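hi! just following up on the protien thing from before. the input was this:
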Amino acid sequence: MDITLDEALAVLDAAHEKAKALGTKMNIAVVDAGANLKAFVRMDGAFLGSIDIAIKKAKTARFFDMPTGELGKLAQPGEPLYHIEFSNGGLITFPGGLPLKNAEGVVIGAIGVSGSTVENDHEVATAGAAALK
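and the predicted 3d structure came back as:
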């Protein structure tokens, strides 16, 4: 099972609308089930450095099928996944990346958002993910 282009665009649109409502400028990435970039938007004025972060958040969420913030808790000093962020060509282990699931609960991709606070990134990602429900 894989996210369709129409689904990916719906996720992007919902996340984009939430970012506008929050008054933030975001980079928003959607990857497919294989963690390949499916759709992307860079809002006018969004940080250039956040492009890579948004894509890596989406990939990280898909690689481990969990929110990036949850993976980050396991990656702290003394925790079982300490230094995992150095694997897989670089992971992002702070909030803003979420797995995307279909109606049956199967992971079909992931969203990654970067450009504001991690709280706003997570909120925008959550709005995008909700578009699939």
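The longest strand covers residues 107-114.
Residues 5-22 form the longest helix (18 residues).
cheers
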